[in-house]
Amino acid sequence: MKNLVIVESPAKAKTIEKYLGSDFKVLSSVGHIRSIAKKVKGGAEPIDVKNGYETIYEIDPEKKKTVAELRRAVKDAETVWLATDEDREGEAIAWHLCEVLKLDTKTTKRIVFHEITKDAIEKAIKNPRSIDMDLVQAQQARQILDRIVGFELSPVVWQKVPGGKSAGRVQSPAVRLLVEREREIDSFEGSFTFKVTAEFTSSGDILKAELPNKFQTEIEAKEFLESLIDAKFTVTDVSTSPSTRNPSAPFTTSTLQQDANSRLGFSAKATMSSAQKLYQEGKITYMRTDSMTLSGQAIAAATEFIKSKYGPEYSLVRAFKTKSASAQEAHEAIRPTNMALEHASGNEYDQKLYNLIRNRTLASQMAPAKLEKTTVTIAIDSPNSIRRTANQIPIANFEAKGEVIIFDGFLRVYGGSKKDADILPAINSGDTLDLASVVARQVFARPPARYTEGALVKKLEDLGIGRPSTYATIINTVQVRGYAEKGENEGNPRDIIELSLQDNSVN
Question: Residues 6 or more apart from 36 whose CB is under 8 A from it?
Answer without folding.
Answer: 46, 47, 55, 56, 57, 58, 143, 144, 147
